[in-house]
């Protein structure tokens, strides 16, 4: 049976946005698995995502303090519907990213990451790299974003970058 995925990163609640946009919560409630690639900022967001997600996979980011780091790993690795996922917050500079990540995560099929707030979807010889951007802080991007996808019998399909309306500060 296909598994509906939601990919989030760099939410920065409540520093960059007072709250998560309602459309993100709607996506959380329809997803089978929610990935969050770090920079939560407050433990209360982790608590709420844990409560509202069917399954949550998370890592800490560079803006996450000791309490979040005590609850979340730097790297998460899970297999969902035959697809081996790895997730980390930061992968370094865009130049050379694919080769670095392929070497660091040789057993992964998909790497989810954040940090830059820049959506990313590339494939190397054996690794797909996905950054959903940020649903709350677009920085220099035209839109706030998140990603959805479907894991189905070992195949990742329907990867979609979803624009998110900004929450006013």
From TrEMBL:
Molecular function per GO: hydrolase activity; metal ion binding
Cofactor(s), by name: a divalent metal cation
Stored SUPFAM superfamilies: Metallo-dependent phosphatases
Domain (Calcineurin-like phosphoesterase) ranges: 4-152
EC number: 3.1.4.-
PROSITE patterns given in the database record: UPF0025 (PS01269)
InterPro entries the record matches: Calcineurin-like_PHP_lpxH (IPR024654), Metallo-depent_PP-like (IPR029052), PdiEstase_YfcE_CS (IPR020935), Phosphodiesterase_MJ0936/Vps29 (IPR000979)
The keyword Ion transport belongs to this UniProt entry's keyword annotation: no
Keywords on record: Hydrolase, Metal-binding
NCBIfam families for the chain: yfcE
PANTHER family in the cross-refs: VACUOLAR SORTING PROTEIN VPS29
Family note: Belongs to the metallophosphoesterase superfamily. YfcE family.
Protein name: Phosphoesterase
Organism name: Mycetocola miduiensis
């Amino acid at each position: 049976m296909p598994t509906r995925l939601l990919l989030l990163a760099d939410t920065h609640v409540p520093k960059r946005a007072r709250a998560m946009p309602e459309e993100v919560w709607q996506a959380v409630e329809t997803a089978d698995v929610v990935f969050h690639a770090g920079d939560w900022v407050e433990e209360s967001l982790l608590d709420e995502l844990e409560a509202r997600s069917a399954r949550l996979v998370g890592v800490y980011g560079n803006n996450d303090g000791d309490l979040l780091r005590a609850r979340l790993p730097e790297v998460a690795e899970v297999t969902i519907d035959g697809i081996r996922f790895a997730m980390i917050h930061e992968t370094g500079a865009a130049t050379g990213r694919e080769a670095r990540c392929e070497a660091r995560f040789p057993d992964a099929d998909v790497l989810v990451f954040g940090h830059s707030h820049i959506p990313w979807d590339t494939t190397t010889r054996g690794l797909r790299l996905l950054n959903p951007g940020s649903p709350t802080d677009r920085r220099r991007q035209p839109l706030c974003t998140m990603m959805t996808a479907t894991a189905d019998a070992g195949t990742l399909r329907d990867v979609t970058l979803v624009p998110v309306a900004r929450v006013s500060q």
